[in-house]
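Subject: sequence -> structure tokens, single chain

Hey, anyone have a minute? Need the predicted structure for the following. Not urgent.
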Amino acid sequence: DGLDLDYRIGSVHYLGERTVDEGPDFYEGKSFDRLFDKYFAMVNYAASSGLFDIIGHFDLIRIFGYKPSFDPEPYYRELAKTMKNNDVVFEVNTNGRNRPVADFYPDRRFLKIFSEEKVPVCVNSDAHMPARVGQYFDEAYKLLKENGFTEMAIFSRRQRQLITF
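Reply:
Had a minute. Here:
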């Protein structure tokens, strides 16, 4: 591709013409269950595309605290398998703590699935301002350790290396 990048990160923001994080009005009059299903289908597609080294905030659709009426665990399991099979890293995005959902992406209840599947992880602050660079990293590392992770991925010129926490 001619670009001297350390990594390529892919994130789903759009469902149709609008972004899932633009505001709660995006969800008005829509079935959240269907949106959740479509969103995870898009994330699975991105993870299997071969275009990305990392999939970022893969459950951003949680941003305003909406939840599907069903147990979403199978969606996380399927995505973990897709990421593992396509050698893609998932991101723990700490900036969710600064959003209405007030928690990291992905949903911490499902981190164990990614640990069990041995999907590599990285931690990212997704900082949109300098003061947030590295914000909540210590908490993220602790959470990952509690869920069975012992190392995380770092990249240099698209070469991945795993380092111990």
